[in-house]
Specification:
443 residues; alpha/beta; TIM Barrel; eight-stranded mixed sheet; four-stranded parallel sheet; 17 helices; 17 strands; 36% helix; globular
């Protein structure tokens, strides 16, 4: 849900170049004496992880006899899978013209333990090229997954930003549009279905045709909705996932229907609820990670008299709405709906990277366990993307080393000691200092 009238002006930053993150020299890495946190099995085990060629290959009791790589003693540390954000707009961040572009955002969020993100609308050609460069090994930063485009009605949501996107008005056009997009191999198909909105929307028949065509090409779908009825329509149309959370109470039976159909829920709690905390809880933006991942100008915009007055006036309504959102997520989780983490970063009330950690905390505030919150951004996110994100042999070696247990306190995901990306230790300070990650860096 991008809310920015001059997005096109910001997209120049998408072409920023960034070399792969700094790495250890050895091809093998052995982590020993770690508390290994496994969201898939919901257990913490003490032990070791052997990493080779970017993959966790074993959990040995001791180093293999022929091991010649680097050994890291992680006594007193906790290892979790790398975090992932499954709803991002990576051109930059509101409320100012902070636009480091997708490559810059990829660098910044990796420093915060976010090893991958799913961009759900930007400049299609630029996203396609950047993703290709990552696959070729010539672009670093967090792994970029992308819908490439946003499929919407003519003059519908996504068209208002001046960025070329794909439109469709009939089932036949939906099938043709999805088939054409499929040739570019998007990681997901993003569809806007919002008849309740102020802008034009596709109808349910067109939605169903787009979902069916995506499935025909082996592609999952994420449907942007605005009301519970729109969510129900998307579920009935066979959507793989729905994103956003309406501001009223979840109607009875919908969560059960989602669970029965296997529909994934990406509620984007950060963008929906965190703005109030930005206004009323100074500690949120005083956090060192928040300061490191954005600019003083962005932070200052949340501290103006005008912003504070606006948020003070809306506080009762905001608190009531936010309580309903949290209750709805808990209702869905209790019914067995698979919840995934997405922040809608790029909008007001979000900071790329930091908002992933905020979303984890909000999920736990909603009543999910730390295990459920971690899985939403790790193992379950990997399942959704067709990847293996975890801490077991065969999983990708994208890991975050923490100074304290995230199971004891989910906020400990912010206490990062080290980030390992594709088996390599990244230089977090260099990522933040790189020209591509900085405002006004090289185009």
């Amino acid at each position: 849900m991008v809310r920015y009238a001059s997005l096109k002006a910001l997209l120049g930053g998408l072409a920023l170049l960034l070399q792969p993150a700094a790495a250890s020299a050895a091809d093998e890495l052995l982590l020993v004496n770690a508390h290994i946190v496994d969201p898939e099995t919901r257990e913490v085990r003490q032990g070791a992880l052997l990493i080779r060629d970017g993959i966790i290959v074993a959990a040995p009791a001791k180093a293999p006899k022929d091991f010649a790589g680097r050994v890291l003693d992680l006594t007193g540390k906790w290892v979790i899978p790398g975090l992932n954000d499954l709803h991002v707009h990576s051109y930059g961040n509101l409320p100012t013209d902070f636009a480091p572009g997708t490559a810059g955002i990829a660098a910044r969020v990796l420093s915060a333990g976010v090893t991958g993100f799913l961009d759900l609308f930007g400049d299609e050609e630029t996203l396609h090229q950047l993703r290709a460069r990552q696959h070729a090994g010539t672009l670093g930063g967090a792994d970029i997954y992308a819908s490439l485009s946003c499929l919407t009605a003519p003059k519908g949501h996504c068209t208002e930003y001046g960025v070329k996107t794909r439109t469709m008005a009939t089932p036949a056009e939906a099938r043709a549009t999805v088939a054409d997009l499929a040739r570019r191999k998007p990681d997901i198909v993003k569809i806007v279905y919002q008849p309740s909105g102020k802008l034009p929307s596709i109808d349910k028949a067109t939605l169903a045709a787009a979902v069916a065509e995506a499935r025909k090409h082996g592609l999952k779908t994420i449907v942007h909705i605005g009301t519970w009825q729109e969510m129900r329509d998307a579920v009935e149309a066979g959507a793989t996932a729905v994103t956003h959370i309406p501001d009223t109470a979840m109607p009875a039976g919908l969560a059960e229907l989602m669970a029965k159909r296997g529909t994934v829920f990406i509620p984007t709690l950060a963008v929906e609820t965190d703005l109030a905390d930005y206004a009323h809880d100074p500690a949120v933006l005083d956090n060192p990670m928040a300061r490191a991942l954005t600019t003083p100008a962005v932070l200052a915009a949340y501290r103006t008299k005008e912003f504070k007055a606006q948020m003070d006036a809306s506080r009762p309504a905001d608190e009531a709405r936010n309580a309903l959102a949290l209750a709805s997520v808990k209702q869905a989780a209790d019914a067995g709906v698979r919840i995934l983490l997405g922040t809608d970063a790029g909008n007001w009330g979000t900071i790329h990277g930091y908002s992933v950690h905020r979303e984890l905390s909000i999920m736990v505030e909603a009543g999910l366990s730390p295990w459920q919150a971690l899985a939403a951004s790790t193992s379950l996110a990997g399942d959704f993307l067709g990847r293996r994100f975890g801490v077991q042999p065969g999983d990708e070696a994208n890991l975050v080393v923490l100074d304290a247990s995230p199971i004891d306190d989910i906020r400990n995901t912010r206490r990062i000691a080290m980030v390992i990306h594709h088996g390599r230790i990244v230089d977090r300070e260099a990522l933040l200092a790189s020209p591509a990650a900085a405002l006004g860096g090289p185009k």
